[in-house]
TrEMBL record:
The keyword Cell inner membrane does not apply. The keyword Nucleus applies. It is an enzyme of class 3 (hydrolase). Its EC number is 3.5.1.98. Residues 1-18 have a biased composition (Polar residues). Responsible for the deacetylation of lysine residues on the N-terminal part of the core histones (H2A, H2B, H3 and H4). Histone deacetylation gives a tag for epigenetic repression and plays an important role in transcriptional regulation, cell cycle progression and developmental events. Histone deacetylases act via the formation of large multiprotein complexes. The lineage of its organism: Eukaryota, Metazoa, Ecdysozoa, Arthropoda, Hexapoda. Belongs to the histone deacetylase family. Keywords: Chromatin regulator, Hydrolase, Nucleus, Repressor, Transcription, Transcription regulation. Interacts with HDAC6. One of its GO terms (cellular component) is histone deacetylase complex. This is Histone deacetylase 11.
Amino acid sequence: MCFRLNTASATDCSMSSGTDDDKEDESPQREANPATVPISRDRLPIVYRPEYGVKFLGLQKLHPFDAAKGGNIYRLLKTNGLIRNDADVYAPDEITLEELLEVHTKRYMDSLKWSLNVAKIAEIPPLLFVPNCFVQRSYLRPMRFQTSGSMLAARAALQSGLGWAINLGGGFHHCSADRGGGFCPYADITLTVKMLQTSGNGIDRILIVDLDAHQGNGYERDLMHDAGVFILDMYNYRIYPRDHTAKLAIRRAVELKPHTDDAEYLRKLRNCLQRSLAEFEPNFIIYNAGTDILKGDPLGLLDITPEGVIERDEFVFRCAQERSIPVVMLLSGGYLRSSARVIASSILNLRDKALLPMAE
């Protein structure tokens, strides 16, 4: 699965807004019969590839998001022996335009041909002055790999027989079918839900556990009337996006005050997750594991310690394992440079607690 992107050199990229025809080659093209990455029980169900990293002449530093977070986690997992070599893990192909259009509107996809629109989504204003071919290669293309990674990780959790998978990226929960925002250009969670529902594996009760500090308004808008999806969203209600319409889709909303600490956070999580599991009896869990809940995060404004994040992740995985429910973990937000180390430590803790079953 691969987008055909304009491969022109820097001198060939025009600064002009141009016409739609001028911009057509700068966006992904349709490709028939995309290949799928095979799933094997013998591989570690962690999904990553170096192309996840956003590198754009330093402009990525204008947003607090750690554009190299996935790569930093990957290196830490290798250093600590969970990943022995690159062949152990899954590397996603780039999602195709045809696949994106399974959820996204053509109007929205066309809007990404304009750097002004992408600059608003990425929250990096100088991007509006950058030729769209550069924006495609340096920002949107990494996000397309991560979006494909979320779908591949869900397939691995479901089909490998191991019952879990982790995408070292993704979790773009502010993006819906027709609108991006909050650094989220593609609706990977909605795409993953639709893929699971049509997989032929009998997945008809999907629980989304969104523990990012922000409300997951994108997929909530998309899945508003889907009775086969139960949304548990636990977020700081005083911060972006404060989307009251999207809130109507949440079956169990846990609204947190700024500076909520470990004790209150974990107490509410234990109570609400157990109630949600008992009420809905899901047969798949999508876990949006944002680390912007960490104390000091400039956007999340909660006061959760690294130990609290590790305990949180352990509780979610333990609940899934005890009920034999496949779970896929997406990284979502996290705006401290220390997030990568906390996430790696949490994954290693899951391994040490025997919550990441592996082939013998």
